[in-house]
Amino acid sequence: MWRSVGTNDFKMTNNMMSRGPQELRLERKGGLTGPCWVCEKYEMHQDEIVAQFGTGDSDKWRGFDPLKETPDLFLRFSRLHRERNFAQGALSFSRQYGLPCATAREDSDVYAPPTQLSLQRFFEESLRAWVVVSLYESVLNRDEGAARSLLTNYRHLDNGFRLWFELLDEKRPEGKFRHTPLQCALGASVAAVSRIVKRSCEPNLVLQIGDEPQPDPSDVKQIWYFNDLRGAMYLQMYWLLTSGGNLARCEHCKRVISLSRPYPEGRKRRRDRRFCDDACRQAHHRIKEKS
């Protein structure tokens, strides 16, 4: 059975990342501050989606926190390019969540909610996200054919894809290590995610001083700054990639199982856990007995 990355994967990872010393509060530097922002109205202008109000009209924008409200938004975004009417799908996405990024201004130091984005860039960003997820799924399923095909067909989308594609059939001296398709697939997925998170996101520490004269180390919190919605969405995939050691899949229903502690002081779960619960364990054994 093909293992697909689904909504529960992202929700489980988000819940897991929400525990512990870090604080998942996203803030924007400059312009409107707080979570992501969605304009009151977006329209299609030729081949671009354009916000109908500027960021100076703050009453025409509403805040939106993707990590809390839609922890699987990266997955939803990755599927958008498959819409039969992509232009309408992209417009509907924008009206609900905002534009993922801007057409230009990649290196600007002044961050503000993007107000326009070409459909071509919108499509390419969604397709890139889908390739990231698909490469990761090929590793989960140990499917070397899928890994090779994805790297071959989509190497033009991202420098990370291209670099790891070039390692696929790299000629090495006899006896020297050669990269396998699955290693290259995971490397390409990690490279694409880490590049965008590095460009669009910035972790920082803040100290929340209380009334007590003796400071508490737990007053130190981690926050994330980000440039755009794309950065916030890629953080979701970033956390999924880095949570591999704390997640497994039920052998019966294929749902994600968290291997981390249920709460910070709780007892650590077994690393060899195979089933969600007793019901799945018993159902799995019944099926094996019948076969």
What would you say this structure looks like, in words?
There is one protein chain. This protein is 42% helix and 14% strand. It is α+β, with helices and mostly antiparallel strands and 291 residues long. It has helices at residues 7-18, 66-69, 73-79, 86-97, 119-140, 144-154, 159-166, 181-200, 229-242, 278-290; strands spanning 26-27, 36-39, 42-45, 48-51, 61-64, 116-118, 201-207, 220-226, 247-249, 256-258.
Features:
single chain, 291 residues, alpha+beta, 2 domains, 3-stranded antiparallel sheet, 10 helices, 42% helix, globular
**What are the segments in which pLDDT stays under 50 over at least 5 consecutive residues?**
19-33, 105-110, 259-269
H/E order of the elements? HEEEEEHHHEHHHHEEHEEH
Query: How large is the count of helical segments?
Result: 10
What would you report as the Rg, rounded to the nearest angstrom?
Answer: 21 Å
Category by helix and strand content = alpha+beta
Ends apart, CA distance between termini: 16 Å
Biggest beta-sheet profile:
3 strands, mixed
Strand content: 5-15%
How much helix, percentage-wise, in residues? Answer: 40-55%
Strand order of the largest sheet: 1-8-7
Overall residue-averaged pLDDT value = 81
What is the count of β-strands? 10
Shape: globular
Question: How many domains comprise the coordinates?
Answer: 2
